[in-house]
């Protein structure tokens, strides 16, 4: 199905958040309501992640005007892990364009775990989407640069621009994952065997593992998300990072694939594009309005932060962010909010 709309001017859907004090108190309420939840398990398949304190919990909202609201452990930095996939994908889309990434990486959910080898086999070596490890490594392999070092510099500069400051690598996490990522090495080799990675697959795994080891806070994630919500301009620095079209495409992919094989449930409960990572981070994007960043290490069986999902679901409801929600036109008219004809 070809539904491209190239050459047609596109309008955007926008809206406003409530005033500053209301957003501020709702962010605090989200933290208060969810901090007592004790469900979920801290990831331990990357050994150093098991040292995380299960009580850590932070909630941040960054508005598209650059205002940031935070509550909880917002100073605790953690590795970005899979959330990096969303931003590297956006950077690669910016370089290669809509059609090329759709064909080479794909945009459909696999319905299988993020590190599935079977998914690659079932799809004749097609990585399917950029949020599973196969597609994420395929995206990393497409990053411009003459060698892995230049590719890394590009990713580091790009993700730092999304966050609005230079991000640091957690060398301990990088080392711990490098020593235990046999599965990712196998996936990269498999992609190579299908002709889907033109570079040295182990060098690609190395750059990918480094991007996953970048340290962020919940507030960083909120600002990174707000950049995708703001047509690609970081609302804190005022700097354009990617185009508005790239944001639109990235958010569509996140809606379909951002919460692993639970992406349908996520969309059903929260109604917004988002991406989670196994260190407990979660970024959610309300297009034209805000980015939400949360951090809490205990995860559901698919790898999504439990408190993070609950706090985000709460904020989506009370801030009116669900992109599928509407109300009858006549109701809106009665409240005096209809347009003059
Ligand atoms: N670096 C992790 C891996 O490749 C990321 C997984 C995740 O956050 O889902 O296994």
TrEMBL record:
EC numbers on record: 3.5.1.2
UniProt entry tagged with the keyword Protease: no
Catalytic activity: L-glutamine + H2O = L-glutamate + NH4(+)
Gene Ontology molecular functions: glutaminase activity
Keywords assigned: Acetylation, Hydrolase
Keyword field contains Acetylation: yes
GO BP annotations listed: glutamate biosynthetic process; L-glutamine catabolic process
Binding-site residues, substrate: 82, 133, 177, 184, 208, 260, 278
Quaternary context: Homotetramer.
HAMAP family in UniProt: Glutaminase (MF_00313)
Protein name per UniProt: Glutaminase
